[in-house]
């Protein structure tokens, strides 16, 4: 590679901002944008599609003495707006994360929340370097705001009490990072950012600490990512689809982040699609109009070309089947088949292993689909089909074909149920789970499966013959036969009415008759438990001939029931029922070792 030291060939680093909903991601981006606008004339900041480009001069203006612009040859920073609030870092570029660097926003009072954990997981998996923005320092009781100041300057203006309360919260977050396997400290104490995560205390409302965040991001990008920022300025553009959107007058368009090379109007491009890669030609490249012009009818202006790194809306025919998270490649001087194969290969990396039977998974982007598949694999939940996009009627049809009832389910991450699928869902035997937190989604599904299994076991348990051993009490014969009525004590297990009972003669079970009634203190009952004394009526035997006072009798267990009890329901029955079962099986198996197996 040629020496890429002049600023022209270093692209802007792509920064993703992620974190738990309402921890302040949007307000932090708004603050950075707002300060950038007030810092320079309106042209200081360019809005891209799905991204905001902040040039180096504006950053150094905002960071004041923290940044000397001559130390940097990167052009600035490109902040990506996460579509929705889910984790942008699940969008990819050439198999890695699309973002070069990430800001994980954590509310300093709330610490780690479900989506924080999820973001951390994705950052760990993609190996994306990140800094933690500990937001909302201004909500510390007794805080004395210093608008827009670097955080250490601001800390000097705080009372000891406010500072120690803030420190307590900050160390809590540092501890949580450590539990997640990352060594972290307040950013000014970090010697080596490659080994330690810097925590930047800030407020998206007062702007305190924002200069520090920009400084740390610039420093990290400059020191560790210069090679990755070196791009071929004139090469064929490469990018990733953020969102597929219908625009009036243009039809389906793709909001794209271009991370390498140049994209020109009229270029032939290949875009990852839901079935096959889409080959099409760019009809228009659209950028948002500058802020002061947004009031005009047209929200966008057409541009002739964009170079990395940039967010741009691409209008072209046939984009309605494009997928969020899929690659976009300009063809230019190569055979189109070669580019199609490249796109296919990149999509194949994200192919999800599917099984003969399993659940249907839908997610909003390829990256989140991949994250879902990984999480389900860890939870040992098989997947029947996994696709990007909203939940459509055919997903319900596919889910209904699952063999096991518990697999007749659709797990949707950050997607909607299409209107034409609602009635189908009502009439189908399919359960829908949707959430914006992956592991919450999986937890809900697992709870449902457990409850379903428990309910199934309970129905089986109701039908299964329960084991019991009981003894005929001396001097408790109330009637000798037709039916014989005797008083008994249950030694172990549960004696149920209408069951066959008998005794073991050696290892042979000898059926005596069938129970036709159980009375407890004069009332008819369906069953009696271990330790209870009841009187029972048995159709068949005569006391004194077939059964005797003092005899030990058993409930006769059909072989199929014995097998279910031993193999599936052992945990569901009581300890004394288990004891009765074991003794029964042991005697039976002396004669036939495989009985009930």
Automatic annotation (TrEMBL):
Keywords: GTP-binding, Initiation factor, Nucleotide-binding, Protein biosynthesis. GTP binds at residues 19-26, 81-85, 135-138. Pfam families: GTP_EFTU, GTP_EFTU_D2, GTP_EFTU_D4, IF-2. Transmembrane segments: none annotated. SUPFAM superfamilies: Initiation factor IF2/eIF5b, domain 3, P-loop containing nucleoside triphosphate hydrolases, Translation proteins. NCBIfam families: aIF-2, PRK04004.1, small_GTP. Belongs to the TRAFAC class translation factor GTPase superfamily. Classic translation factor GTPase family. IF-2 subfamily. Signal peptide: none annotated. Function in general translation initiation by promoting the binding of the formylmethionine-tRNA to ribosomes. Seems to function along with eIF-2. One of its GO terms (cellular component) is cytoplasm. GO terms for molecular function: GTP binding; GTPase activity; translation initiation factor activity. HAMAP family: IF_2_A. It comes from the Archaea. Residues 10-226 form the Tr-type G domain. This is Probable translation initiation factor IF-2.
